[in-house]
Amino acid sequence: MMIRRFALALVCVLLALPALAAPARSAHRPVPVPVPIAMADTVRVALVTTQGTIVVDLDGKHAPITAANFLRYVDARRFDGTTFYRAMKVAWGDQPNGLIQGGQREVHHLFPPIAHEPTTLTGLTHRAGALSMARNAPGTADAMFTIMVGNIPELDADPKATDPNLQAGYAVFGQVVSGMDVVRKIFDSPVSPTAGEGAMRGQMLAEPVRLLTARRVPVS
Questions:
Q1: Quick one: which of 45, 146, 183, 205 is 20 to 30 A from 173 by CA?
Q2: CA–CA separation, 21 and 67 (whole Å)
Q3: Could you give the number of structural domains in the chain?
Q4: pTM for this predicted structure
């Protein structure tokens, strides 16, 4: 149990850190503002990568702020040409388990950060295929996101935790509906043994997988 708690704390630290070579964020964090997009209960998006297509459903009913933020980047085509650049593996749960991370990292392509929607509010959870926002402190999420390879409910908000980061957890806002084989292919891609800072070393993909386009598609 002690080892698992240490590993969980490490996961939270790693998710909070920006990736290697990501542009530095301003020390004066903008105040989160509402996203000017009206969300349907479900919006389907196809993420076309060089490894295949991942189709996701954004949950506008339960996570309207976070889902609308993601959709704003989709509609502005600001995910086009970005990459999945990280595969983080965890040692617990049904194996293989962990997540992949990608998104927009160029500061001049970022919208203001959004308010945090904890899983205690949305009722969503970090199960296999869930989309979740990467962030530093709660309220700093912008355009970097993760996709769960397996179930990692430890990333859900935990009101009983003494660590504020664990209390807040991470914001789930959607689910993969097809293309988990592509997610696992990215997850299994070779990593660089030297890229990445500190505990993130060994998690950065040797050859990041390009996200060619992100577009709305009809919900069948």
A1: 205
A2: 26
A3: 1
A4: 0.87
Which residue segment(s) compose the domain that 9 sits in?
Answer: 2-19+41-217
Domain assignment of residue 34, yes or no: no
Taking the chain (220 residues) in consecutive chunks of 10 residues, what is each chunk's mean pLDDT? 48 47 43 67 98 98 96 97 96 93 93 95 98 94 97 96 93 98 98 86 95 95
Buried b (16+ CB within 10 A) or exposed e, 94-123: eeebbbbbbbbbeeebbbebbbbbbbeebe
- Which residues neighbour 105 within 8 Å (Cβ) at sequence distance 6 or greater? 18, 19, 21, 22, 23, 82, 143, 144
User: Does a structural domain hold residue 27?
Assistant: no
pLDDT value of position 27: 41
The single residue listed with the structure tokens 């998104």 is 103
Sign of CA dihedral 151, 152, 153, 157: negative
pLDDT of residue 3: 43
Report which residue type is found at 40: A
Per-residue CA distances from 110 to 21, 73, 127, 206 (Å): 16, 8, 27, 25
Q: Across-strand partners of 186?
A: none
On whether the CB atoms of residues 104 and 143 are closer than 8 A, the answer is: yes
